[in-house]
Design brief:
Length: about 475
């Protein structure tokens, strides 16, 4: 009896194990799990590798991290560029926690090849080309032999550090950098010594070695959409393409004009140094050089438009005060820009959303601005009545007029005493009047300023009135008949 029970127990245990080992059939009405679509951010790389492109890629990576994107695709077509910006882009790509892909659409030359090598996968369009990554001078000329060896050695080390564990990528990029490097896989020489390696999409897709693997390309696709469909399946990716901002476009444009602006700026400053006083050429020269200097940073100013408009208005007011006093146009324009920027900054505008111009958007800012102006006017009127009588202001003012003659700016006291007698006299511009300078009357020089415009040396002018700071003059031809 115990033996029979043991047999029955063994049969039952075997049946339970067999049932447990069988796969559980899915219910006919159950819905299979659907994988979550991959979140993809596409960053266009359409310019030379320089500071503006660095700002574009860095902003795109930050937005991808904030959006919790799974993949970043660099849609690349670049002739290369500066190594310092290239290294910073490579470091920025390393901070993205997801997958990075370069889509060569249709060329990645020089610095573009370095950036592509940093990403996890490199895809090509059918006509895509990568290569020619040897370092050259900014002018395109050859580097000194000793310096070239140092730079190439450093670049190859950087490539090895960023491409470790990525198949033949380190060897391929080294062959693009160093003409003396021989790329050989097994017994096949891909590139001999004496030339730089460049690869087409087909060549980059060829498989070598044992086990066979592509030389460089992860695949060939006609477009970014085709790439994503091949990699994740049709409809399994949500794509967000980074929009290049106005400041980034402006930065690219200004960088392209840098040589012209530098030449114009230096020429203007040379002319300014050769002419007396300070005038139009000085302003033009400083402005051109400032634009070249700021062109590397303007790409990061997107989102700060009210501040920029306010700064422009402030500059116009300074131009009015120091260079063109009395013209009024600069001061009025600057004041309008500053007030408009204040209203803009107080408006409730959300980033990355379309601006709908309606009354409600600017009612509160305009009300606050009007209230501020009324308070300023009221306080100014009150102070105007209080200043002559207040004990505080009486301590700041001279109680009695001095008996000595007024000191004429730039001259002795006796010149100031005779200044009024010069009104109506004809003078010659001893220096350029831009608008300030010196005029000559009866062999004596006086500080003078044109009320409107400018005049070169030797121009005949007429004294209109005298002030404590010099003579105000007009061109003789501007005088009424």
């Amino acid at each position: 009896m115990p033996r029979r029970l043991f047999q029955w127990f063994a049969v039952l245990l075997t049946a339970i194990v067999a049932i447990a080992a069988e796969p559980v059939a899915a219910d006919a009405g159950a819905t299979p799990a659907v994988p979550r679509p991959q979140r993809v951010v596409v960053i266009p790389v359409r310019e030379p590798v320089d500071a503006p492109l660095l700002f574009i890629i860095r902003r795109g990576l930050k937005e991808a991290i904030e959006d919790k994107a799974d993949v970043v695709v660099l849609d690349m077509k670049t002739p290369g560029g500066a190594l310092d910006a290239t290294f910073e882009i490579m470091e920025a790509l390393a901070k993205f926690p997801g997958k990075t892909i370069t889509f060569i659409n249709s060329e990645a030359l020089s610095a573009g090849a370095f950036i592509a090598a940093t990403t996890e996968e490199i895809w090509f369009t059918p006509d895509g080309v990568i290569g020619a990554a040897a370092p050259v001078l900014a002018t395109g000329g050859e580097i000194d032999t000793t310096m070239r060896q140092k730079v190439v050695s450093y670049l190859k080390a950087r490539v090895r550090a960023t491409t470790e564990g990525k198949g033949y990528r380190g060897q391929v990029i080294s062959a693009m950098i160093d003409a003396d490097y021989e790329l050989k896989i097994d017994d096949k020489v891909i590139k001999g010594k004496g030339e730089l390696l460049s690869l087409t999409a087909k060549e980059a897709s060829e498989r070598h070695g044992d086990p066979a693997q592509p030389l460089l390309a992860a695949g060939i696709a006609k477009s970014v959409e085709d790439l994503l469909a091949q990699k994740f399946g049709a409809g399994n990716a949500t794509v967000k393409t980074l929009e290049v901002t106005w400041s980034e476009r402006l930065a690219v444009f200004l960088r392209a004009l840098s040589p012209l602006l530098l030449g114009a700026g230096l020429l203007s400053l040379y002319i300014e140094f050769k002419t007396p006083g300070f005038g139009v050429f000085g302003i033009v020269g400083i402005s051109c050089l400032a634009i070249v200097f700021l062109s590397n940073f303007v790409a990061g100013l997107s989102g700060h438009e009210p501040m920029l408009v306010f700064g422009l208005g402030l500059i116009l007011i300074f131009v009015e005060l120091f260079f063109f006093p009395g013209v009024v146009v600069f001061a009025v324009g600057g004041l309008m820009l500053m007030l408009g920027a204040l209203v803009w900054s107080m408006a409730d505008i959300w980033p990355n959303e379309p601006v709908r111009f309606n009354g409600d958007l600017f009612v509160a800012p305009l009300r606050d601005l009007a209230l501020g102006v009324l308070i300023a006017v009221g306080l100014a009127l009150a102070l105007a009545r209080f200043i002559p009588k207040g004990w505080f202001f009486s301590r700041l003012a001279v109680a009695q007029a001095g008996n000595a003659p007024a000191q004429f700016a730039g001259g002795a006291p006796e010149i100031g005493a005779d200044a009024d007698s010069l009104v109506g006299r004809t003078a010659f511009a001893a220096t350029g009047l831009y608008p300030s300078g010196q005029v000559e009357i009866d062999g004596r020089r006086y500080e003078a300023r044109l009320e409107v415009g400018s005049a070169p040396p030797g121009t005949r002018v007429i004294v209109r009135r005298a002030t404590d700071f010099g003579l105000l003059v007009d061109r003789e031809e501007a005088a009424p008949s």
